[in-house]
Specification:
- With about 100 residues, this protein is mostly helical.
- The chain has four helices and two strands.
- A two-stranded antiparallel ribbon has the order 1-2.
- It is elongated and about 65 Å long.
């Protein structure tokens, strides 16, 4: 999961350092996560050329699915948290209330 989050953030920023700041990690940690993911998949996701970073065609194809899955997990987590909560506050006021 951490590797997928690192990949998604790095793909948006095209920069491991900015992704690290967003994820509250070090640049080295993001780099390791990406390298481990690439090794697991057996495909290079980023091309690293003279200090610039870009997605490879495989990375471009993969990032859409990763974003969708991470979004679905986030929504499911929010729904689960909402169902677990019993802290609804209902406020009533007169129709003439003005701010």
């Amino acid at each position: 999961m951490k590797a997928l989050q690192a990949f998604e953030a790095a793909s948006r920023h095209l920069n491991f350092t900015r992704a690290a700041v967003e994820l509250n990690l070090t640049q080295t940690a993001v780099s390791h996560q990406i390298r481990n993911l690439e090794e697991t998949l057996g495909v290079q996701l980023f091309a690293r050329d003279q200090g610039t970073l870009r997605l490879t065609p495989a990375g471009e194809n993969y990032v859409g699915s990763v974003r969708l899955v991470l979004s679905e997990i986030s929504l499911a987590t929010d729904r689960a948290n909402d169902e677990a909560r019993d802290d609804t506050l209902t406020i009533g006021c007169l129709g003439t209330f003005q701010i």
